[in-house]
Design goal:
The structure holds two protein chains of two kinds. Chain A is of the alpha+beta class. Chain A has helices at about 35-45, 85-90, and strands spanning about 1-5, 10, 15-20, 50-60, 65-70, 80-85. Chain A starts with a strand and ends in a 5-residue tail after the last helix. In chain B, helix 2 crosses helix 10 and helix 3 (about 90-100) packs across helix 10. The chains are: A alpha+beta, B alpha/beta. At the A-B interface, strand 3 and helix 1 of A face helix 8, strand 12 and strand 15 of B.
Chain lengths: ~100, ~425
C-alpha cells in the first residue's frame, strides 16, 4: 500500500507502524465519574468495520509524524490522509 | 449413516462405486430450533457435533452464509499443538490435542491426523530459559515437551542452517504429539457426523439480524427468512465484529489478514513442523509434497482475504534464515484469511449480556488447533449454561477486570499478538 503523506508525498506503508483505530486520539478524561468504564471501552473495544476505517499510522522510518488514514478495509484503498495533529486540534486538543 | 471402512472401499471398488451417497443432507431451514449455531466453519460444525453427540441436543441447526468449510478452516496451515505457557490456555489446548488424537475414530472419518511433531527453534540463552519454562508448564498440564540439544537437531533435521551468524540455532523445544491434520476433512468429518445425528446444516444462508425482545434473543433473521431459536451461538471468527454489531455489541477484537503459502510439490524433505524462533516463520510439508508455510499477520485491519508484499518478503527471509534449501523451491500458491485478533491474543467463549446469545471468537491466528476443544467447550456452554472446566478463563469481562491471558505480553495491541 502507498500512503500519500501530506508533507512528504507518496510513501510505502512499510515505512509506517500501524497503531489502530483513530478513535484512540479521543482519550477519555481520567477525572470523570465513569473514568474506569470509559477507559475500558477506550482501551479494549473497537468498531472494527468492514469498509471505511479511520486509523493511525506512525511514520517510524520517516519523519515520525502521526497520520490519520481513511482506508477501506475490504479493498485496502486509501481515501484520505491527514496529519493526526490537525485532527486532534480540530477536536479541541492542544497538541 | 453409512460407515466408512477399508472393507467398504474394496466393496465399492468391486461394484463400480455406485453405493456412495452425499455425506450430509441439504435441508430447508425449519421454523425454529433449540439451538442455532451461526457459522459453518470448523468451530461451528464441531460445536454442532458435540452438542448432538455429547450433550444430547437434537434440534440443532448450523447456518452458514457460503458453503461449509469455505472460510478459515480451509485457509490455515493445518498445525496442531498444545505448547502454551499460561494456565488459562494450556489445559484447553491440551484437551484439544487429546480430542485430535481420537478424532478420526470419533467421527469415522479420515482427517489425516498426523502426529509428526513440532519443533520450536531456540536461538539465544534467554530464549532457552523461556522455552524451558514453557516446557515445564506443558508437562505440569499433562502435555509432552522435550528439549532437544543442537546435536539432536542436527541429526534429525540435517538441512537446517545451524550456523547462521545472526541467529544461530542453539536448541529446540519439541512437542512430539503435535503435527498436522487435513483441514478440509475436519470440516467435512464434523459436518457428516453432526448431520447423521439430526443437525440441519443450512448453507447459503446469511444472518442479517438478531431478533431481540426484552433483552433476550429469540432467533436470527436470515436471507432465507426468520429462524427461531432458544439459544444462538455465534462462531464466525474473522467476521465476529460484523456479526455482533447486528446485536449492537462492540468486541475487543480487530480483524487482520494472515497470509499463507505453499510451494510446488517436493519429495519428502521435512519430517515435522518447524518454527523459527528469531522471526516469525513456520513450515511443514503436506502429504502431497508442498511445503506449507506462513509468518506474521500483515498488521493492519483488513477484511480483504489477501495481503501485501512486505509480509511476503519478511516470511521468505525467515525461511531463508533457517532453510536455505527452500530458496530453490517455487511458490505455488499464496492466500490470506481474516483473523479475529483479540486484545490479549486469547479467545473468548462466553455468554453475552443478551439472554440466549452466546459468543465464540477472538481466535487470533491459532484457531485451527483449537477446533475440537472450542467446539466441545462451546457446546458445553450452550447446553448447560456453564463454561467448560478448561475454558473458564475465556470470558468477555477479563479485559475490564484485568484478568488478561496475554501469552506474548503485548498488551492491547492486536497486531502484535
Amino acid at each position: 500500500m502507498i500512503i500519500d503523506h501530506p508533507l512528504l508525498g507518496p510513501r510505502d506503508s512499510a515505512e509506517f507502524t500501524y497503531m489502530g483505530d483513530a478513535r484512540l486520539i479521543e482519550r477519555p478524561s481520567p477525572d470523570a465519574e465513569d473514568a474506569a468504564a470509559a477507559f475500558y471501552e477506550y482501551a479494549y473495544l473497537r468498531d472494527n468495520p468492514a469498509g471505511l476505517h479511520r486509523e493511525l499510522w506512525f511514520h517510524e522510518a520517516g519523519d515520525r509524524s502521526w497520520l490519520v488514514v481513511t482506508r477501506n478495509t475490504v479493498t485496502h484503498e486509501i481515501a484520505k490522509v491527514e496529519l493526526a495533529t490537525d485532527v486532534a486540534r480540530a477536536k479541541g486538543r492542544s497538541t | 449413516m453409512m460407515r466408512y471402512s477399508g472393507l467398504r472401499v474394496i466393496k465399492e471398488a468391486l461394484s463400480g462405486h455406485k453405493g456412495w451417497w452425499p455425506a450430509w443432507r441439504n435441508p430447508e431451514p425449519a421454523e425454529a430450533y433449540d439451538i442455532v449455531v451461526v457459522g459453518g466453519g470448523g468451530h461451528g460444525l464441531a460445536t454442532a457435533h458435540y452438542l448432538a453427540k455429547e450433550f444430547g441436543q437434537a434440534k440443532v441447526a448450523v447456518i452458514e452464509k457460503g458453503w461449509i468449510g469455505g472460510g478459515n478452516v480451509g485457509r490455515n496451515t493445518t498445525i496442531i499443538r498444545s505448547n502454551y505457557l499460561l494456565d488459562g490456555n494450556e489445559p484447553f489446548y491440551e484437551m484439544s490435542l487429546k480430542l485430535w488424537e481420537g478424532l478420526e475414530q470419533d467421527l469415522n472419518y479420515n482427517a489425516m491426523v498426523s502426529q509428526r511433531g513440532i519443533l520450536n527453534l531456540i536461538h539465544s540463552d534467554n530464549q532457552r530459559d523461556a522455552f524451558i519454562r514453557r516446557g515445564n508448564a506443558m508437562l505440569l498440564n499433562g502435555a509432552d515437551a522435550d528439549l532437544l540439544s543442537i546435536d539432536d537437531i542436527k541429526k534429525r533435521y540435517p538441512f537446517l542452517n545451524t550456523q547462521d551468524a545472526r541467529f544461530p540455532i542453539k536448541a529446540g523445544l519439541a512437542q512430539h504429539r503435535g503435527g498436522t491434520v487435513r483441514h478440509d476433512a475436519v470440516a467435512w468429518g464434523y459436518a457428516r457426523s453432526a448431520d447423521s445425528r439430526g443437525v440441519d446444516i443450512i448453507q447459503n444462508c446469511e444472518v442479517t439480524g438478531f431478533r431481540i425482545e426484552n433483552g433476550a434473543c429469540k432467533g436470527v433473521e436470515t436471507t432465507r427468512g426468520f429462524i427461531g431459536a432458544g439459544k444462538v451461538g455465534c462462531a464466525v471468527a474473522g467476521n465476529s465484529s460484523r456479526l455482533m454489531s447486528l446485536a449492537n455489541i462492540r468486541l475487543p477484537i480487530e480483524s487482520h489478514v494472515l497470509q499463507a503459502f505453499v510451494s510446488e510439490g517436493l519429495k519428502p524433505v521435512l519430517p515435522g513442523v518447524i518454527t523459527f524462533g528469531a522471526g516469525h516463520f513456520y513450515c511443514s510439508q503436506s502429504d502431497k509434497g508442498g511445503l506449507v508455510f506462513g509468518g506474521d499477520i500483515d498488521g493492519y485491519n483488513s477484511y480483504a482475504q489477501r495481503g501485501n508484499l512486505p509480509v511476503v518478503e519478511d516470511v521468505c527471509e525467515g525461511a531463508m534464515a533457517i532453510f536455505p534449501m527452500l530458496g530453490r523451491a517455487r511458490l505455488l500458491r499464496m492466500w490470506g484469511g481474516i483473523m479475529d485478533m483479540s486484545m490479549d491474543g486469547s479467545p473468548i467463549i462466553d455468554k453475552t449480556h443478551i439472554d440466549g446469545l452466546y459468543f465464540n471468537g477472538g481466535w487470533c491466528y491459532g484457531g485451527f488447533k483449537a477446533t475440537p476443544a472450542s467446539g466441545y467447550a462451546f457446546a458445553h456452554l450452550l447446553a448447560t449454561d456453564t463454561p467448560h472446566e478448561t475454558a473458564k478463563a475465556y470470558r468477555f469481562d477479563r479485559f475490564e477486570t484485568g484478568r488478561m491471558i496475554d501469552e506474548k505480553g503485548m498488551g492491547n495491541q492486536p497486531n502484535l499478538h
